[in-house]
Write a structure and sequence with these properties.
The chain is an alpha/beta fold. It is 52% helix and 16% strand. The chain has 13 helices and eight strands. Helix 8 links the parallel strand 7 and strand 8.
Length: 238
Amino acid sequence: MNQKITILDLPFINTTQEKFNQELVKRLQKKLNTFIVTANPEIAVYAHDNPAYKQLIQQADYITPDGIGIVKASQMLNKPLTERITGFDTLTSLLEIANNHSLKIYLLGAKPEIIQQTVQNIQQKYTNLQLVGYNDGYFTDKQPIVADIKEKQPNIVAVALGYPKQEEFIARNRNISDAVWIGVGGSFDVLSGKVKRAPKIFQDLHLEWFYRFATHPTRLKRIKVLPRFIKLVKKEQH
């Protein structure tokens, strides 16, 4: 896991999802405090424009290439990444690991009805993990949540507040529990069943972004960042 590919000053891990999962199992067994950033082109551009945020996520233990745009950028730089490692796939892998080893998990983020449904679906599917706490993302005072996490001492904390909030929350509070802390963006929307993940054919063709746009045209603003991302990467080539 030592090999990293740097894109826009962000050191992305260069491995497979399977090997990364094995690494996470080891870290969970040793109770090593771990911070995972799942970075797509949007996050890379935001970090480029916001040095404080960039510095914060550079301190993460792992930055994963979440999005085919990151993989394509690595190819442009002649430093090809092995494969895309998405936040959603990493989260579901962590749920499986927690289920296999009866680990404690804490969920934070999303709308109240989304988190409720996510909790219900997880408890139905992963009957052996311990879901020790959860909270929606619409809180004004984080202290009760921080106190709750500190008391429960989960092995895994999945934070779905969207960037930059989720990474800021993790960076400031990861010291309260020696857990695997991961920012998971909109993953609870998918786990709850509210948003359907792209069919496998779209995933295999690396067209998940197109499927998401076609089914949710409001995402246009997010897709608009891609040309700028490519432009910044091209600059890095010279």
